[in-house]
């Protein structure tokens, strides 16, 4: 499932970065001991990193330990620790806007020299994935988890009963909306109660219409510029066309993703399609194993005629990253530890735990996945993508991302027009 960033804590905890001496330690950091502390977001997948630490400790004179931090306050704990003497040596993050404040205050170790000195390691990752660990063109993150692209899932049975095929163009999308409405089926499940799900539509539309350069300008200016690009307005207009045509039904604003409601609409055939991150496969597998294995279809988001974006571009979460703090007393060991994320044992552990790796030439490993067909589709989709756009709310600093998601919700709920939406974002 999507590992969320918790932008709501940004205001208070950002003070820790600006006044480090005023912040107490977050626990689990360096603390003056001889161990190298690796902070991890606490979830079931941490077993992969635990295996890497065990192998590292067998070969290194430095002892590494994993400090698991509960997900509901990970970023808050990290910000507090980074503003104290208890900062970790290596830590899990989302790349992009999640680490930019630390980069601006020279708290992170640039990794370009390390990659240049280890070209085999640098070339072991899918380029579009590795690039997502950069800030201002400098590498600060090394991939540590699987990919999470946004995929268009569909119910094969519902499509067969309607006598239609999965969409290959935007015009196909619009035609399918009409078809499924006539069939009494909601064309698209949408968990509007969790507005980050609505963001996915705009991410793909802006990229397909204007290419990745549009959002790159927004990121470069930290949200101050770029929202007035014509591609953003056109994407907002297309969203409103979908909403007004009934593409998401009438009650999408009250449908929850975290409670599984949107996924259930798809698996039960009450919705025909669902635009969602790759974790949707695992979600439905847990809900309805038979449907997931026999009747769940998946395709890439279709191209838009006349659009400047490459139709093979992908949006979502490229992966999560390890970064190294600049003042760690274990710099050599920390950089060595990063190289473990591309080893065969690490990749095999990822696949065994249902993740799709970020390394090149992983086709044979992916074939051993518990769900090989889907894993292969996802791997090839990401491997062949010229560009992988990090989710907007993770690419931008929290003080921009949080109100941006609110404006997206207002657009979908009809509380603002496309023009008002663009104006509101430009004002951020």
Automatic annotation (TrEMBL):
Entry keyword annotation includes Signal: yes
Domain of life: Bacteria
Protein keywords: Signal
UniProt xrefs under Pfam families: SBP_bac_1
InterPro entries in the cross-refs: Bact_solute-bd_prot1 (IPR050490), SBP (IPR006059)
PROSITE patterns referenced in this protein's UniProt entry, alphabetically: PROKAR_LIPOPROTEIN
Signal peptide annotation: 1-22
Name of this chain's protein: Sugar-binding protein
């Amino acid at each position: 499932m999507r590992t969320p960033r918790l932008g709501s804590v940004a205001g208070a905890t950002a003070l820790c970065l600006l006044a480090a001496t005023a912040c107490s330690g977050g626990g689990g950091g360096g603390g003056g001991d001889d161990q190298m502390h690796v902070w991890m977001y606490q979830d079931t997948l941490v077993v992969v990193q635990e295996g890497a630490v065990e192998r590292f400790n067998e070969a290194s004179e430095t002892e590494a330990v994993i400090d698991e931090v509960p997900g509901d306050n990970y970023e808050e704990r990290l910000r507090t620790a980074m503003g104290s003497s208890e900062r970790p040596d290596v830590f899990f993050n989302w790349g992009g806007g999640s680490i930019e404040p630390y980069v601006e205050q020279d708290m992170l170790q640039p990794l370009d020299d390390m990659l240049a000195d280890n070209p085999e390691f640098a070339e072991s990752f899918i380029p579009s994935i590795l690039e997502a660990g950069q800030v201002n063109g400098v590498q600060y993150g090394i991939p540590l988890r699987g990919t999470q692209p946004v995929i268009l899932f569909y119910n094969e049975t519902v499509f067969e009963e309607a006598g239609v095929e999965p969409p290959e163009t935007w015009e196909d999308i619009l035609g399918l909306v009409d078809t499924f409405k006539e069939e009494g089926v909601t064309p698209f499940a949408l968990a509007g109660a969790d507005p980050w799900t609505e963001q996915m539509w705009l991410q793909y539309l802006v990229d397909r219409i204007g290419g990745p350069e549009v959002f790159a300008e927004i990121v470069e200016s930290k949200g101050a510029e770029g929202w007035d690009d014509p591609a953003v307005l056109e994407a907002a207009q297309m969203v409103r066309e979908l909403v007004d045509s009934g593409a998401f039904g009438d009650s999408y604003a009250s449908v929850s993703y975290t409670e599984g409601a949107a996924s259930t609409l798809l698996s039960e055939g009450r919705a025909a399609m669902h635009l969602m991150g790759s974790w949707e496969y695992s979600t439905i597998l847990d809900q309805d194993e038979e449907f997931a294995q026999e009747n769940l279809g998946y395709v890439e988001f279709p191209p838009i005629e006349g659009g400047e974006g490459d139709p093979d571009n992908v949006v979502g979460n490229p992966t999560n990253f390890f970064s190294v703090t600049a003042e760690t007393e274990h710099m050599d060991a920390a950089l060595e530890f990063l190289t473990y994320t591309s080893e065969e044992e690490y990749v095999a552990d990822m696949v065994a735990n249902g993740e799709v790796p970020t390394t090149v030439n992983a086709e044979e490993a992916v074939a051993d996945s518990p769900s090989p067909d889907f894993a292969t589709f996802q791997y090839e989709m990401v491997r062949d993508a010229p560009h992988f756009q990090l989710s907007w709310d993770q690419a931008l600093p929290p003080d921009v991302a949080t109100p941006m998601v609110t404006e997206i919700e207002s657009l979908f709920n009809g509380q603002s027009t496309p023009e008002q939406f663009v104006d509101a974002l430009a004002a951020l």
